[in-house]
Amino acid sequence: MYSYYLRLALKSFRRTPGLTALMVGAIALGIAVCIMTMTVYHAMSGNPIWWKNDRLYAVTMDNWNPNQPEDPQHPDLPPPQLTFKDATYLLGSNIPERKVVMYARQSVLTGGVAERKPVPVTTRVTTGDFFAMFDVPFKYGSAWSASADQGATPVIVLNKEQNDKLFGGANSVGRTIRWDDREFRIVGVLDTWSPTPRFYDLNNGAFSEPDDVYIPLGWTRTLGQYPNGGNTNCWRPETVNTFADFLESDCVWVQMWVELPDKASRERMQALLEGYWAEQHKAGRFPRPRNNRLTDVGQWLKDRGVVQNDNRMLVGIAFAFLAVCLLNTVGILLAKFLNGAAIAGVRRALGASRRQIFIQHLIEVGVLATVSAVLGLALGALGLLGVHSLYVTNDVVDAVTNAQGGYQQLTHFDTVSVLWALMLAMVSALAAGLYPAWRIGRVSPAVYLKSQ
Amino acid sequence: MLKMQNVGKVYRTDLIETHALRDFSLEVAAGEFVAVTGPSGSGKTTFLNVTGLLETFETGQYLLDGSDVSRLSDDARSRLRNEKIGFIFQSFNLIPDLNIYDNVDVPLRYRRLKATDRHERISSALELVGLASRVKHMPSQLSGGQQQRVAIARAIAGDPAFLLADEPTGNLDSLMARQVMDLLEQINEMGTTIVLVTHDPELARRAHRNVHVVDGQISDLKMYESRAVGGAQTLGAARA
What we know:
The complex is a heterodimer of chains A (about 450) and B (about 240).
Chain A: H1 2-15, H2 17-45, E1 56-61, H3 84-91, E2 98-110, E3 119-126, H4 129-133, E4 138-141, E5 155-158, H5 160-167, E6 176-179, E7 182-190, E8 213-216, H6 219-223, H7 243-248, E9 255-259, H8 263-282, E10 292-296, H9 297-303, H10 309-339, H11 341-349, H12 354-390, H13 398-403, H14 415-442, H15 445-449
Parallel strand pairs in A: 3-8, 5-7
Antiparallel strand pairs in A: 1-9, 1-10, 2-3, 2-6, 2-9, 4-7, 5-8, 6-7
Chain B: E1 2-12, E2 17-28, E3 33-37, H1 44-51, E4 59-64, E5 67-68, H2 74-84, E6 85-88, H3 100-110, H4 115-128, H5 144-157, E7 162-166, H6 174-189, E8 193-197, H7 201-205, E9 209-214, E10 217-223, H8 232-239
Parallel strand pairs in B: 3-8, 3-9, 6-7, 7-8
Antiparallel strand pairs in B: 1-2, 1-4, 4-5, 9-10
Helix pairs in contact in B: 3-4, 3-5, 4-5, 5-6
């Protein structure tokens, strides 16, 4: 029976191609706008490492001005970064299963088989746990060993894009490359990896590109260079004559994450923070009230305001637009179905029940919904392509787009988006067709049989 | 076949109540050919709609094939309508974007018959009305008389117990009207009960019995074949 209804639906579309196109267009347009805004919103608000939400924690301690919080708009939050000396102290703990202390640097990379001029790259100076902790996939090689973290070991990990540019995508593990005029041996090449938002370091925009290269944290003292790739915040005047002075200062500039597999380890880690805080407080540091936190990724993104109100408003507007499109569709469908009431009356006289007439028209709406969904998806993809082209990236404008928040990262269609869009389209169009289909099922056939 | 006792049907608006049928009683026996006549607004069409289970009624009782159909659900009424009743309309009411074959197929689809069974029934119905060679034609490609014959084929394809014909020749010229009436008589002779609503006394005279309706009530009964005088039950029993 359903295939019969399907045939009738197709005949109905052929009978009124203009109206059908209008309805499909209206729904598809509404869907496309929703897809675009929701894709961006989904990417912004999603937790890119949700499967580890109960294991990964950002470590923060409130070592700030006793007279005012670091962020006056969120006075309850400690600064998002730690001082180097606090971070390195906590790094010595064996409580976390994995631990990462890191910061970003702007550097220059030279070498490779392609004759390329030195190019600016973003470097993440980090401990080797970074890769396993954040489930970073490797295409070739692996992370450096734990011993490499102890000093200035000249090992480097490239991301896929840099390896493609420098080595044409070939396995470059074991080869050397010049990083800021120092020779480094490549130990690993990442596969595609682009967590969105870039939760582990929100300093340069939550949606900026991932880092280009990675070197061990042990290089920090050897390089002796002040950080130039993130935010360094200090709250009190300090005498900083040397880089060693800077490392001992109360300026916050490094990020710390720990992997704590269970409640017991979380409690032990929290106790460590509290104990360390008490000790430092006694020694005259940490002048603010105790505020030491282990924050999971989901809460971290909320605390740090990754999803802005503008985006929520945009989603609201998009849905309002969809509602207008659907209302129009309801009107058109109602007119179309009631225009065919005489035929529905004939069918009723020939034995169709109200339910069968309702189902027949609902299937017509279902076909309409499917076509609208596919078209809406295509239009949405085109729209996202348009958004992407506004923020088109190349080597020269990378920095600019990153500064704009890296919106090009948000315009990818993933499986979840596609499924979500299809479901939205189906539900929307079916909702639009429900009332007209119900109405046509309720018409009294007798009225139309005499007058057709 | 059908028996109505004191059936009442009222149409209500905010201001007016219209009694379309009042204490309407009629019995039609299996195999009868009954003509229902009456002036405009007398209740003929309401009678037809109630008889065809297209409309409900407020009072009285209606037995169809021995079963009380007074208070059935829409699904049950639709099923009965599909299985026991065939409709023929004045304006044919063929579905314009279905070809002849598919038009005749409509009631069979709702009966959920197998494709082979449906094909057999459609073919023999179209054969009977002389349009077996036009299965692929669209309704707009046929004359009025041919369209009405298709409508008759559609009505009889499901092998209903009785046909309800509402002014079936009203839109046809006299020649075609005669052909359609011949066909209806032929179908009746094959055993199908027919209730024909008409204005035309000539057509009414071709029925076995004429029921005249005025103001929603039966005002007169005539029997053309046997000329027997008496109530409907007697006439029905006489034909049976």
